[in-house]
Design brief:
The chain is mostly helical. It is built from eight helices and no strands.
Amino acid sequence: MAASGQPAQGVPLLTAGLEQQRALESTLYIPHGLVMLADAYRIGGAPEVGLAQISEAERLAEETEVKWVLAETLRLRVDLLAQTGDRMAAEASYRDAIALAQRQDGKLFELRAATSLARLWCDQGKHADARELLAPVYGWFTEGFDTADLKDAKALLDELA
């Protein structure tokens, strides 16, 4: 619900789901749930609350060694930092997210981070750099072009053309 533009309805659902996971003492999906909750707060315009969720997700990911979500955690941390206006920290963290996604062979998370960094660079007038970063990552995909992530990347590439 949050991803479809209704964060006020999505946050309670995500919170309830996290509470159920904690009650079951199932830690496998809690870091990912916290990342989704942080994204809902980002969409709702509450980046500081989202950053607190990201910190908790990172702590739990390290504690439980559930690290598959760390690249997305880094990317979202940067989106939240960018919302607060900290552009320099945002760029450095986007680069970290891209590098981690590459090490983990996480093409979707690499695409998301590259799209976010390319958008930041586009806003700074660095259009050629943005296209040079995003085009090869987007070009890796051979299917799924109707998904939101690939549509978003394609729209940005079209804007940069």
